[in-house]
Amino acid sequence: MNSLSDIVLQATPVLPEIILAILGMIILIYGVVLGDKGTSRVTLFSVSALAVTAVLVAALSAEKALGFMGSFVHDPFAQYMKLLVLLGASASLAMSFSYNVQEKIDRFEFPVLVLFATLGMMFMISANSLMTLYVGLELASLPQYVLAAIRRDNTKSSEAGLKYFVLGALSSGMLLYGISMIYGFTGSVNLEVIASTLSNDEMSIGLIFGMIMLISGLAFKVSAVPFHMWTPDVYEGAPTTVTAFFAIAPKVAAIALMARVLLVGFEQVIDQWQGIISILAIASMTLGAFAAIPQNNIKRLMAYSSIGHMGYALIGLAVGTPDGLRGVIIYMALYMIMSIGVFAIILTMRYNERQTDQIEDLSGLSKSQPGLAFMMALLMFSMAGIPPLAGFFGKLFVFQAAVAAEFYALAIVGVLTSVIAAYYYLRIIKVMYFDDPINELDRATGDLRMIGGLATAFVVLFILFPSIIVEPAQSAVASLIPM
Q1: Which of 295, 450, 455, 456 could cross-link with 301 by S-S, CB 3.0 to 4.6 Å?
Q2: Segments making up each domain of the chain, as ranges
């Protein structure tokens, strides 16, 4: 009886992941039986599976609980970040309904791959062991490689999938090498055991090297410079619904994983990694600000924009304080919602029933579709950090944390690059409102307009209801960093 109760206790924290895995396999079999003609139903069932999983995650106790013999942890931090990932994945699938049919890529594999990638992200967020970290990372990454190349008859999509796979395999190798070094010098892969080992022993050169390799592998997943090289090509080459998914959910999971690894496993040697994260943040903000300026393809522009935004999020992580982590969590929540809105509008960019992704195609949008142009303008203002929109407060939280911890260089670079980056966001607004129309875009479908409208409404109204994001974030911080 005791063994049965132990099994139940070990399984309870992992219950949402177990249920999602079972539902994913059932949906996969259902899709195989029906074939591509059942894609819409498979997509609907997949969104329902994500919703059920979100309910289970929210229903779990907020108290910290360990599963799989301590290699999996459930706490308010994991709960908060998982709900963000599930929301992002659900929004990505919701945006794919009409687009995939129009682009003739409505295959039942698409929503199933998103489901299993999301499952991997949930394991990443709850990883309390370097082995769980790696398994979750690979489970999330492998479906993404396939998604990038899902348009098999398109050269750019195939190229995007191949580049992502090759560079992803390189980052996985670096990650594994770092894990092996850390295990060799600490004798454990459990983050809490590693933390206790580091508190007793001095940091050796080999362990520092292993930590650097581990951070490098994780930096690839968040597109931090200099591990960003895959991002522009993959964003441009992959189908736009896939690009939207890449921009929305995986970044949240990867940032959450970095935060747990560094602030739990390596918190005792914070002086050893703060400088590395600071360099990644400064390089990402700078490249994201300057490299996006000459871009004419809006998906490539959003790729460089995402690199810059990850730099801002890394400011809070580099600070390593409770306020810094709170800034990271809030920033990622707001960035995800802004990205949902922006990509919902990018998906409406169609001319003569063909997808287009050139910025100049938005010319005169304010005259043909004023509602759509207004939503895009508000989202661009928010991305640029213009008050009183949500994006301003995301940056405010991380900059305040940096100043409070006397990381003045990070705050100054962040403010300066925000000003520079505002140029290419304002350029899109200028094209929509002041340039003469080149091609009048097709009318947007109702589902995409609704998703874009909801995201825009949140961005505008956040100032009135900040507690929706801020209060749960505070609880999440307290579970990871003792106050």
Answers
A1: 295
A2: 1-265, 271-483
